[in-house]
Amino acid sequence: MSTDTNTDTATHFRTCPLCEATCGLEITTKDGAITRIRGDRDDVFSKGFICPKGSTLKQLHADPDRVRTPLIKRDGKFVEATWPEAFAAVAEGLGHVWADGDRNAVAIYLGNPSAHTLAGTLFGSQLVKALQTKNVYSASTVDQMPKHASSGFLFGNPGALPIPDLDRTDYLLMLGANPFESNGSLCTAPDFPGRMAAIRQRGGKVVVVDPRRTKSVAAADEHVAIRPGTDALWLAALITEIHDAGLVDLAALGPITNGFNRTFDLLAPFTPESVAAHTRISADTTRRIAREFASSRTAVAYGRIGTHTTEYGTLASWLADVLNIVTGNLDRPGGAMFPTPAHGRPAKRQAPGVRPTGRGFSTGRWTSRVGDRPEVRGEFPAAVLADEITTTGPGQVRALITNSGNPVRSCPDSEQMDAAFASLEFMVSVDIYVNETTRHADVILPSPSPLAKPHFDLAFYGLSVRNVANYSAPMHPADDPSEPGLDEHEIVAKLILIAMGMGADADASLVTDTMIASLATQAGLDPDEAAASRSHLPPVEAIIDLLVQTGPYEGLGIEQLRQSPHGIDLGPLKPRIDEILRTTSGNIELCPDAIAADVPRLVALLDGAPDDGLLLVGRRHLRSNNSWMHNLEVLVKGRSRCTLQVHPTDAHALGLHEGVDARLASDVGEVVATVEITDEVAPGTVSLPHGWGHDAPGTRNAIAATTAGVNSNILTSGAITDPLSGNARLNAIPVTITALDVVGV
Ligand SMILES: Nc1nc2c(c(=O)[nH]1)N[C@H]1C(S)=C(S)[C@@H](COP(=O)(O)OP(=O)(O)OC[C@H]3O[C@@H](n4cnc5c(=O)[nH]c(N)nc54)[C@H](O)[C@@H]3O)O[C@H]1N2
Ligand SMILES: Nc1nc2c(c(=O)[nH]1)N[C@H]1C(S)=C(S)[C@@H](COP(=O)(O)OP(=O)(O)OC[C@H]3O[C@@H](n4cnc5c(=O)[nH]c(N)nc54)[C@H](O)[C@@H]3O)O[C@H]1N2
Ligand code: SF4
Ligand SMILES: [Mo]
Fold first, then answer.
1. Which end of the chain is more exposed for a tag (fewer CB within 10 A), N or C?
2. pLDDT at site 745
3. Domain identity same for 225 and 278
């Protein structure tokens, strides 16, 4: 921070915590009040790039609807409480449920922002462990779990996700992602649009595969308007074509990969011709793109939400990686690479010639009580949480903790979720708003404004296109009278202590002290010395210091981070497959049994008749963030964005007109949405964004309520998931549309 005492202005540099892009912000204050937020031009990674959300941290900080005092529900109404009262109510409410002897009766749901907070990334898994419950749910199973599953199967390491090396690739094949709105996902790359443009400027090519003509499509060389839900078919055909054309490149990865022939045999039925009707992509196009990809100097296939959140999510994710592997593009510059984050563990040294074997990856170590769904990475599908709450009998979920999640809007079959939450015996939410989910809570524990918290992107530096480290100290002291008074990590620490049976009064520092001691021990340091030498630091900074000092970059610690307000650039990604692999063979397992056993489902899709009905897909908008940030006037003003996009041909056939309301129905629910006729969607595809529907009673989001929109997850089904990952199908939903008669016409 720099200050000018003459004018009482100060400049703070922080990383924006709102999305995965990790942009640097320059925040100017006068007399403590924020006067301006703009992109930090000196940020080593984002170099001044910012999107409209970054600057609205100011409005979020000031939002009068943001919860600033713990709330306890009494006689159906929230009343303000002190922190000791709130924690006592939590200990009592959860304690009552635990008293019956079943730890599984308390469930937890961790929402998306918990990947963006230190509370979530450092203490989330500790809380899960302390709860000793199998009922663990998160936004991962409405998002990227297929990617974890495919990495688990391929590399034995579900936490190691290959990232497209955007800055060096010659050919980006991007499926089901729209970084012009989302700013990128599982690919931390501030100014993704600029990085895409740079690919083209250096003579490379960008191909976007999406049933909608998005802004990302407009900035690409080529648009492939795929039929929703068919990415796995198409990727399989690309691989078969590359194999048949003799373009497989085994030079680098062949010696460390098992299962090439089995993979090619399994994928043989999928050819450019055989998948053409289902994907609506001509065989010529598929053949040409396969050859371009394989013969490009470097190339990378990168799939995101549109490929992952379908019934074939893990297969599609696996196939994108197979495509990268068989063309020699995994773990090499310009291909798909594994970042080396500053807080990661340093590489284990292997004796020369010895493969780095591990324990491999498995799912289904236990299964859900209702529906017998396998756990994946210790989680059940978010799609079954409602059933676990409403199905009576031993093991029933009776209490719930949510941390930064809004599953009543973000998860499938959300009306059922809403009703289920209303029936809980006890619910506690760590959140910043009273919204569709937290209105059901008995206690709300408010997290401070993002500007009042320390920040270090533990999750996203592991998914980043460059190795970077940037620490932001809190801009406001924890005891700022306009803030709730406890940092979010302290709130989570208190919940951990309650779950451990230590009561509501135990000191949060017990949790941070234990973490410091155990990290030190793991790193081979003396725990007392490690703690003593960091006793001058706030606990979270001490933990980051310890992680970074014992990480892969020598000479890096919190001091260097503090002195580098614009971040530290640790260079481009480096090949490191041997440090990643944890398979029992020590090799990449291209065709593991679990995956092979799921391929017949894809064959069945191919053998079935192509679906000619209407398929619903979602979409994102730059000025939105899943189901929240809709209470900030500056972001939601103007025309409603929650429209049902229909292609002119379909609109004509259905008798729909621009701006009228229509009934949109799936086999689990229906909504009434306003029609927008646009050829941006492919014929047969309709699109409605998720995260809207802010008209529920009992919420406290005055602005959001005025631009409510409709909740698209009324239409998605909890029953249909990708079997290997448990991920919900949120795209490619069969729907029907009926024109509603306009009154008076
Ligand atoms: N149909 C459909 N559904 C989808 C998707 C889709 O594409 N289509 N996308 C899915 C995806 S990718 C995701 S990640 C999920 C997201 O699903 P969720 O994580 O369940 O929901 P969000 O809308 O991100 O809600 C975030 C919550 O965190 C709160 N919050 C914000 N900042 C903080 C903070 O700093 N601390 C705390 N404690 N709380 C905070 C907000 O008030 C809000 O309640 O939605 C999924 N749902
Ligand atoms: N502004 C904004 N930014 C965000 C978010 C937000 O809500 N708003 N959410 C954040 C989160 S939690 C995430 S996970 C990321 C997601 O980031 P992205 O993965 O980039 O997500 P989307 O922008 O939803 O883009 C998904 C695209 O997939 C297309 N699609 C749908 N079905 C299919 C299909 O079957 N096949 C193919 N090939 N394409 C399909 C859709 O038309 C859409 O354009 O964004 C993050 N950033
Ligand atoms: S792109 Fe993401 S990280 Fe960058 S300013 Fe926008 S919301 Fe923040
Ligand atoms: Mo997400």
1. C
2. 40
3. yes
